[in-house]
Amino acid sequence: MISRERVLQIFEEAGVLQTGHFILTSGRHSDKYLQCARIFQNTKYSEELCRALAQKFEGQKIDVVIGPAMGAVQMAYEVSRALGCENYFTERENGKMTLRRGFKTHEGQRVLLVEDVLTTGGTLFEVMEMLKEKGAVVVGVGSIVDRTNGKVDFGVPFESVIKISVESYEPSECPLCMEAKTPPVKPGSRSL
């Protein structure tokens, strides 16, 4: 298993942890942002972290690893490679997460959902519902970074490589906005 110290070392080397004034995917504000896409610039980091996550699901008989686009496309590939199974990704079509490009699930197919950083789990809940409608069985959820502070229950096992607590605020309560020194930026891949 990978140590917390090694994960933090990778984050430092890859420039993952950033400081400033950020708008998170959830719409909340924070003075820290985890740009996990930077992990996937270097295969030695992505392979090591995704293998560590895959090890937590060994023996679960996973048929396919699915990650929402954009953040988890490469991650789904790396985790599936470590598990020796297929991988797909979901995309937004008409505002809803869906499988496209010929990806299909079937009744009883065992799915592991992955995401680089989890805070509220909103996107994964949406993907879980879509997969349930198609008859697939989500057997677990995995992330590199768990920012949920134990507040999210997916109803299936949830594993992460590292738990990190980063404070976030509703925009109306954001001390960074109140100081008005720097406007917030949205470094993520999704528009609000």
Any chance you could write out the topology, listing elements then pairs?
Layout: H1 4-14, E1 17-23, E2 29-34, H2 43-55, E3 64-68, H3 73-83, E4 86-93, E5 96-99, E6 110-118, H4 122-133, E7 137-146, E8 158-163, E9 168-169, H5 175-179
Helix pairs in contact: 2-3
Overview of the structural elements:
The protein is an alpha/beta fold. It has one domain: Rossmann fold (3-Layer(aba) Sandwich), CATH 3.40.50.2020. The protein has five helices and nine strands. It has helices spanning 4-14, 43-55, 73-83, 122-133, 175-179; strands at residues 17-23, 29-34, 64-68, 86-93, 96-99, 110-118, 137-146, 158-163, 168-169. The chain has a six-stranded mixed beta sheet, sandwiched between helices. Strands 1-2-9 form a three-stranded antiparallel beta sheet. It is globular, with a radius of gyration of 17 Å. The chain starts with a helix and ends in a 13-residue tail after the last helix. 39% of the residues are buried.
* Number of separate helices: 5
Mean pLDDT: 91
Tell me which CATH architecture applies here: 3-Layer(aba) Sandwich
Principal-axis shape equals globular
Structural class comes to: alpha/beta
The fraction of residues assigned to DSSP E strands is 25-35%
Q: Give the CA-CA distance, first to last residue.
A: 36 Å
CATH topology: Rossmann fold
Number of domains: 1
Poorly predicted runs are none
How many β strands by DSSP? 9
Oligomer designation? single chain
Order of helices and strands: HEEHEHEEEHEEEH
Percent range for helical residues? Answer: 25-40%
Largest sheet: 6 strands, mixed
